[in-house]
Amino acid sequence: MKFTKMQGIGNDYVYVNCFKETVEDPKTTAIKVSDRHFGIGSDGLILIKPSEVADFQMDMYNADGSRGAMCGNGIRCVAKYVYDYGLTDKTFISVETASGIKYLDLTVENGKVALVKVNMGAPILEAKKIPVVSEKEQVINEPLLVDGKEYRITGVSMGNPHAITYIDDVKGLDIEKIGPKFESHPAFPDRVNTEFVKVLDDHTVEMRVWERGSGETLACGTGACAVAVASILNGYVKEEEVTVKLLGGDLKIYWDREENLVYMTGPAAVVFDGEIAL
């Protein structure tokens, strides 16, 4: 199987051009290629396919083989791939995902895509649609007992569920210990991605993320969008472009409250092309 490894601020995936390649068992393939010792090494597998309703389709699998609905960093890399590898010459494209069609605006420099702005759609705040088990319609700064400690969480879905909690020290956090406790907490029927956030100023936040099915990753695009929305809802930042600082780099997030749409801008990069025996 021919593949391209790409990364969006450190969130790395193995990409397969399914206009040319066929992946019979994507779940098993995702587990194999994601292994950083015996495989290629990645946060998961993303298949680029034809679509009947958009320019392209993105089919995403996490490192444990589970199906992912949407990945903000991953979809930026899809945009770079289809342009740089000649599948399109358009700089505004649509991509079908399991959480709906996303629209991407490509910034091209010297014939290659350098930045991608993604219309990530509307944030979902209704608890049962995220889903978060709660008696309240929305979960904003609500207490949650995790591993014997009370955290205050805000629930947001950007096509996949996120729990955002604010802490004083993200760098010293033992995320390997607490991350799985959040992920498998009974309050989250479909498991959850958890963002641990420190507010730096009224337009900048710092976060680490524990992704369901993948563990800690260097970046999470949908997570950064959820954090920006949660930070605005909690009054920590102004209603303008928010810089979200992740381990792998920065993303610019803007929540247009009038249209109720979230826009994410960030880079995408090719790491290498290769071929692997399955």
From TrEMBL:
Active site: 71 (proton donor), 71, 220 (proton acceptor)
Subcellular compartments: Cytoplasm
Pfam families named among the record's database cross-references: DAP_epimerase (PF01678)
Binding site for substrate: 11, 62, 72-73, 160, 193, 211-212, 221-222
Amino-acid biosynthesis in keyword set: yes
Entries under InterPro entries matching the protein: DAP_epimerase_AS (IPR018510), DAP_epimerase_DapF (IPR001653)
Pathway connected to this protein: Amino-acid biosynthesis; L-lysine biosynthesis via DAP pathway; DL-2,6-diaminopimelate from LL-2,6-diaminopimelate: step 1/1
Recorded GO MF terms: diaminopimelate epimerase activity
Biological role: Catalyzes the stereoinversion of LL-2,6-diaminopimelate (L,L-DAP) to meso-diaminopimelate (meso-DAP), a precursor of L-lysine and an essential component of the bacterial peptidoglycan.
PANTHER family: DIAMINOPIMELATE EPIMERASE (PTHR31689:SF0), DIAMINOPIMELATE EPIMERASE, CHLOROPLASTIC (PTHR31689)
Complex and partners: Homodimer.
Record's protein name: Diaminopimelate epimerase
